[in-house]
Amino acid sequence: MKIIILGAGRVGESVADSLVSERNDITVIDTDAERLRDLQARFDLRGVVGSGIEPAVLAEAGARDTDLLIACAAQDETNLVCCKMAQLLFNIPTRIARVRSLGFQCDTRLLGADGFAVDRIICPEESLTRYIGKLVEYPEAMQVREFAGGRASLVSVRARTGAPMVGHTIAELRASAPDVAVRLVAIYRRFPDEPDRFVACSGGTRIEPGDEVFVLAAQEHIAHVLSALHRRDASNAPPVRRIMIAGGDRVGLRLAQQLGQEEGRFHLKIIESDPQRCVELASALPPSVLVLQGETTDEDLLNDEGVEEVDLFLALTEDDEDNIMSCLLAKRMGASRVLALINRRSYADLMHGTQIDIALSPAQAMLGELLAFVRQGDVQAVHSLRRGVAEALEIVARGDRKSSRVIGRKMGDLRLPENVHMGLIVRGLPETGAAPAHSDASSQLPPLPPPPQPQVIIPHSHTVIESNDHVVFFLPNKRLVSDVEKLFRVSATFF
Description:
Blueprint: E1 2-6, H1 10-20, E2 25-30, H2 33-42, E3 46-49, H3 55-60, E4 68-71, H4 76-90, E5 94-98, H5 103-106, E6 120-122, H6 124-137, E7 143-147, E8 152-158, H7 170-176, E9 182-189, E10 197-199, E11 212-218, H8 222-230, E12 242-246, H9 250-260, E13 267-272, H10 275-284, E14 290-293, H11 299-304, E15 312-315, H12 320-332, E16 338-341, H13 345-351, E17 358-360, H14 362-374, E18 379-385, E19 390-396, E20 421-427, E21 455-457, E22 470-475, H15 481-488
Helix pairs in contact: 1-14, 6-9, 6-14
């Protein structure tokens, strides 16, 4: 696929890194020539110096035969104008824009063909807010990724000594609860010579303390699974109540606004060093949110505000070093759980598995929204895992037995790549784009019965795949994605 990326900042760099590794033809446009030279030296891509809202620059970047435009410059206005020009002048089929302003998401008329012609809006800050919100909902989890409209999720959790499921084989767990829609799809285990090595999940695989376990489960089973892997008594974890946010930038503000809407549920404190920004935060947030002016690494401030009683400490500034140090300090002082926002991939790798419970990369939180446009076939959701190495993929099975390699066939007959797990199937979801049924008031026919509820199925070797099944895979290496896509690709006989 031929792709143009507008903007070589943090978001643009992360997007380019992910897409180049999948053998796409990438061209990056930016006004900073030095920045482009650095990207060209590190990645297999082409750089064009100039403004993305100039027709000559877009033409030089190859816009006339481009398949996808991703406008992720720093300014919303630049991204929107670039998308409109890409439609009017070059007829680029798919256009994605990074937009921070919430107004454009609320009024779809602005984004249609008669507006700015944007097919999809991405907002890294909004993606981060949703992601952290899920971690607040499931305190034991290290990651929570949703599929099939939230009916199923992929969660990762650190196995702890004494938890009911730890020390048992996967076969024993299946036998103890055969009807529960849960499947362990991957284990990452620490070894002296190679930390966090992938361990394939078979019936004889035993869960050991310290393992990072990836589990696909129906939504209603997630809390139980997390507790069974992380808590000694298998009881659900107490809800998160006390939250301290270090940093009042865009992410911190959005998260505080979201959590503050649930009046009385959370006790929120937000720390910001800039006095003027503190005034802005106090005016934008509910009165129940306490805004504190000070340094996020100030030990006296953290002690005075009772960091030892905090259920979740979130370091969300734009400075990686400050986020790391404030989290380490808060953890040492007694905070139950800490999360650091880390932009540099090398820093995130270093912090994984340390005293910092969760090292979160902003780019990884939103990359899945972009990858769904790049994937071949009917891909509904993509989530980048393990700092871009692994991937979880939701594909819809289309066609019939004649036009598809999977429809009407048993799972055991499919030739899946090695170590690729077909984790679960969600059956009974409405067809994408299907029009809702309208009742005719003049008709005397009785009302139709409500459609059956979607079903989450854990596939076995005898499970037959049906048309419109939403199939969720775990892939330990993203190079295996193309093989899975080819398997689900509909032949030319399907119309």
